[in-house]
Amino acid sequence: MYSEKVMDHFQNPRNVGEIENASGVGTVGNAKCGDIMRIYLDIDENQIIKDVKFKTFGCGAAVATSSMATELVKGKTVQEALEVTNKAVMEALDGLPPVKVHCSLLAEEAIHAALWDYAEKNGIKIEGLDKPKSDISEEEEEEEY
Amino acid sequence: MYSEKVMDHFQNPRNVGEIENASGVGTVGNAKCGDIMRIYLDIDENQIIKDVKFKTFGCGAAVATSSMATELVKGKTVQEALEVTNKAVMEALDGLPPVKVHCSLLAEEAIHAALWDYAEKNGIKIEGLDKPKSDISEEEEEEEY
Amino acid sequence: MDKIIYLDHAATTAARPEVVEAMLPYFTESYWNPSSVYTPASANRKAVDQSREIIAKSLGTQSQNIYFTAGGSESDNWALKAAAEAYENKGKHIITSTIEHHAILHTCDYLQSKGFEITYVDVDETGILKLDELEAAIRPDTILISVMFANNEIGTIQPIKEIGEIAQKHGIIFHTDAVQAYGQLPIDVDEYHIDMLSASGHKLNGPKGVGFLYIRKGLKLRSFIHGGAQERKRRAGTENVTGIVGLGKAVEIAFDTMEERTKKETELRDYAMNRILAEVPYCRINGDRKKRLPNNINISVQFIEGESLLIMLDMAGICASSGSACTSGSLDPSHVLLAIGLPHEIAHGSLRMTLGEETTKEDMDYVIEKLKEIVEKLRTMSPLYEDFVKKNS
Amino acid sequence: MDKIIYLDHAATTAARPEVVEAMLPYFTESYWNPSSVYTPASANRKAVDQSREIIAKSLGTQSQNIYFTAGGSESDNWALKAAAEAYENKGKHIITSTIEHHAILHTCDYLQSKGFEITYVDVDETGILKLDELEAAIRPDTILISVMFANNEIGTIQPIKEIGEIAQKHGIIFHTDAVQAYGQLPIDVDEYHIDMLSASGHKLNGPKGVGFLYIRKGLKLRSFIHGGAQERKRRAGTENVTGIVGLGKAVEIAFDTMEERTKKETELRDYAMNRILAEVPYCRINGDRKKRLPNNINISVQFIEGESLLIMLDMAGICASSGSACTSGSLDPSHVLLAIGLPHEIAHGSLRMTLGEETTKEDMDYVIEKLKEIVEKLRTMSPLYEDFVKKNS
Ligand SMILES: Cc1ncc(COP(=O)(O)O)c(C=O)c1O
Ligand SMILES: Cc1ncc(COP(=O)(O)O)c(C=O)c1O
User: Fold this and answer.
1) Residue D220 clears pLDDT 60, i.e. is over it
2) Residue C19: which of C338, C214, C296, C252 has the closest Cα?
3) Which of D8, D69, D101 to mutate for ligand 1's pocket (most ligand atoms within 8 Å of CB)?
4) From the CA atom positions of chain D, what is the Rg in Å?
5) Are the CB atoms for B18 and C382 separated by under 8 Å?
6) Catalytic one among B41, B103, B105, B110?
């Protein structure tokens, strides 16, 4: 069901953990769907993401997308991190099963939520960043027959 | 599906044939159902059935019941022959499958028709013999579930 | 007698050894439920998908359009009932033929009891649908045309492409019961404009209890069996992995061997039909001489009744079947033979022999000799033959 | 790892070697259609009847009341749809439970769309139907009560006899989905006042793609699959002889070995449940501790999600399943776990392990050790666990 990359990131997730006194923390998720992701960011004065950690309650895809998302934003600037889309995460994982696409959206949202928290804490405004939704709505797949 | 007796009478039918100048001939049947039976009787002046022959177009059970019915009436008086019921034919054959019960009725009717013909030809009345129906009505089995 | 000559391949066929071999591992070793998430189960998902792929390819379509069922009857029921339900807002009129299998006819009876109107289009004396009557039967509220690809009794092959074109022209869904044709004839669902097609595994040397329904992409048909999300949520029930694998293997072989096999069968069929016509007096061939299934022989033998004939053939080690549906507990003669215009007595005296690839010329020679003997014997006890002889002497 | 520990017997089981052996001759040698009239075919009619007899005996009824189907889902669909149709003049109200299998629930959705009204009676926190609510739900227009014998996720066994008595008292037909219970528990349809019962072969070491519906004599239910006259005209389609023979054999063995097998499974189940409760912190047993299927373990492991757990168990060679229906392409947590009152996060973290007769104590010891490791690993990455620890420190 999952690609080898997904399985690798699930079995050996990168950047699991917490950051004390993080620059920004974002938690998103949906108890009904069963996925909750929390991202910790350590951002320096040049708006570079020096460290990132995550914790995720969720399925294999949720864990793997969290892990991959943290890899993709690590070392990037805040602006660059903002451009890490769910599509980028999915591509980096060699794809996800259709029912699991929402996990990658969740990862994107978690990064945004952490960035929003950082922005709020520091009283800055990040171009192109909206207040994150606390919940990712589930979309029923189209039955295309 | 058929008892051994039925198979025996089907494979080796007794009394197949015609009787020239028979005392009575009866043909009954139902083209729709696919069974036609003809019975020839040779009856002497003491109303004893000296010989009997049959021809049947029909399934295995039709042939076997014809054969058995001729055996059962041979040597009997007209009155005795009248008492050979379809039940007696069936019993003598060790039973018939439910869908084939109508064949034994047909055999009974064929005997009656031949007796009726004999009675008419000789201007006598046989106690208890009605004009035969030319056709045996099919009864749908009850679905008993 | 020891040897059995099986001439009832239209009733069912033996599973090929390769088919059984393909199935075996899935009974006791790889027995997983294909929907399970653990790794071993993915082999079973793949096996199911591979069969689907084989079947899709055989029909010139994509595997997502193939839905596994428990056989031809379920496929027929599903196709008709689901189409009726899905399109009843458009209309409640359905067209079919007078010579369909009971899986279609009795489903139509059921739909009629639910307020649908059914038109039964007639066939000509060889069993071919009257296309002009079909076209004339179409109304604005017609939602479905269901005509079998080839008939199970007399083997007549319908002008499916023409029917498909008529259906398409009028924007009506076209279903075909291809239970007898699939595996014997090449079928391209797009070329023939077929929207739904039923098939059954045990008619083509596959296992019993498995079949499929092809449903054209875009048709909004619902489930017939509701429950789990199997078969793209359209047919619930744990997948019959062994059956599906066996079906896939059978289809693969049937299509690989089709050309050679059907050529051989056609020759043998024609040889036997010609000999019977020449050597058995007062008999006729039912169905079309050319547009017929390669393996189907159906004759009517005048003055004798089908069941007696069958029992006597059986005693000679020959398995055949009768046009008469006596076999199924009913006393009516075959609706198909009546539809092609046979009178009742003759309809009752019909014999179907359906060949298989293992049938030999020697087999058929033996069968024809036996047939001649039996016909003679039965005629000596037939009152109909007696009348005929007297009338003509 | 090489060895696989299969703990998903509720999903499907391996066919027993004896079952496959019993089936084999019917694929390639005795492949006849049981409805055919020739002599060889009568062996297949007998084989089918023998399986019917075995099943009838196992339920304390006569063989004429057993109808073969393609599996549990078809049986459930047939029972509900045919009863609804047959009795809709009496009323259009149906009662079922909140924890039924989707084969029942989705069929109820369908019937609802056809104008039937469905009442879903609740269960208590161990999953046992609330009998007082059942009785209160009965109305003059109630025509059917359908409650499963034992639940497929949490294993809870329902008070079937009491439900049967309530149904009988009110003159309402009672159907039970016994797909999980049949072969594990003794069932007497008369004693329990069961009017219809569904079962499926592959849950009791029989083949996939075959099952049956018991219908009490006198119930005027019609066909679900229309067509040929098979199964006393109530279920069309060439009989799946191999499947039916395999099912018969599986039932025979399941009932012969039931006592010993379920005793062993019950012990192992209780041993494992007790160890898990003692050794895995923050987990609970779902379902009733006593009134549960001998082979069912269902636990909720707090703070972790079911699919991750399953994948990690899979990597350790352990096949289990999650209460979460993620597996079937849906993202909702199990309706059964929600019905017994679990909050969503906990419902998502549940694990079902269903034992088989081949499961050993060593297997379960290994599984428990692995489970402990995995739970610990997943908790270190769980934000829910982090919050919990912080709150309580
Ligand atoms: C309780 C219950 N009912 C019905 C079914 C459906 O049975 P099948 O998959 O054989 O159609 C299952 C199993 O999947 C089940 O556990
Ligand atoms: C034309 C046709 N349709 C449908 C069926 C039903 O198929 P099955 O018996 O596999 O359900 C048959 C065979 O019995 C058939 O010949």
Assistant:
1) yes
2) C252
3) D101
4) 22
5) no
6) B103
Q: Chain B residue closest to D231 (CA)?
A: B145
DSSP at D143? E
The model scores a pTM over 0.90: yes
Which residues 63-92 of chain B have a CB within 8 Å of chain C?
Answer: 63
Whether this model's ipTM surpasses 0.90 comes out as: yes
CB B34 within 8 A of CB C326: yes
Select from D70, D242, D310 the Cβ nearest to the Cβ of C70.
D70
- Is pLDDT above 70 for C201? yes
Does ligand 1 lie within 6 Å of residue D103's CB atom? Answer: yes
| Cβ–Cβ < 8 Å for C155, C296 | yes
Q: Do B99 and C382 touch (CB under 8 A)?
A: no
CA D225/CA D235 separation, integer angstroms: 5
State pLDDT tens for residues C98-133: 999 999 999 999 999 999 999 999 999 999 999 999
Tokens of C99: 């010579």
Backbone angles phi, psi at D2, to 5 degrees: -105, -50
Closest of D254, D197, D159 to residue D72, by C-alpha? D197
Q: Return the higher-pLDDT residue of C96 and B101.
A: C96
Q: How far is the CA of C241 from the centre of ligand 1 (A)?
A: 15
- Residue B59 annotated in active site: no
Rounded Cα–Cα distance for residues C349 and D219 (Å) = 38
Find residue C297's DSSP bridge partners: C353
Decide if B4 contacts B40 (C-beta within 8 A): no
Which residues, listed in sequence order, are joined to residue D285 by a DSSP beta bridge?
A: D299
Distance CA D336, CA D153 (A): 7
Q: Is the pLDDT of residue C329 over 60?
A: no
Arithmetic mean of pLDDT over chain D = 95
Whether residue C41 contacts residue C62, with contact meaning beta carbons closer than 8 Å, is answered with no
Q: What is the pLDDT of residue B99?
A: 83
CA of D237 to the centre of ligand 2 (A): 7
CA torsion sign for D79, D85, D90, D91 is positive
Report whether D98 contacts D175 (CB < 8 A).
no
* Structure confidence by residue, pLDDT tens digits, D290-336: 999 999 999 999 999 988 999 999 999 999 998 654 444 445 788 99
For position D37, what pLDDT does the model report?
87
pLDDT of residue D323: 63
DSSP calls for A73-132? HTT-BHHHHHT--HHHHHHHTT---GGGHHHHHHHHHHHHHHHHHHHHHHT---TT-PPP
> Each residue of C287-312: pLDDT tens digit?
999 999 999 999 999 999 988 999 99
Q: What are phi and psi of D215, to 5 degrees?
A: -125, 120
* Burial (CB count <10 Å: 0-12, 13-18, 19+), residue B95: middle
Per-position b or e across D124-156, b if 16+ CB within 10 A of its CB: eebbbbeeebbeebbeeebbbbbbbbbbbbbbb
Contact indicator for B56, C383 with CB cutoff of 8 Å = yes
- Residue A95 CA, chain-centre distance (Å), reads 16
Q: Hey, how many other C-beta atoms are within 10 angstroms of the C-beta on C330?
A: 16
Q: Which helix (H) or strand (E) element contains residue B51?
A: strand B49-57
3-state helix, strand, coil in chain B (%, to 5): 40, 20, 40
Phi, psi of D6 (to 5 degrees): -95, 110
Task: Choose the catalytic residue: B7, B16, B33, B48.
Answer: B33
Which token pair is B67? Answer: 């054969």
Asked whether the predicted pLDDT for residue A136 surpasses 90, the reply is no
- Maximum Cα–Cα distance across chain C: 81
- Predicted confidence at residue B113, as pLDDT, reads 95
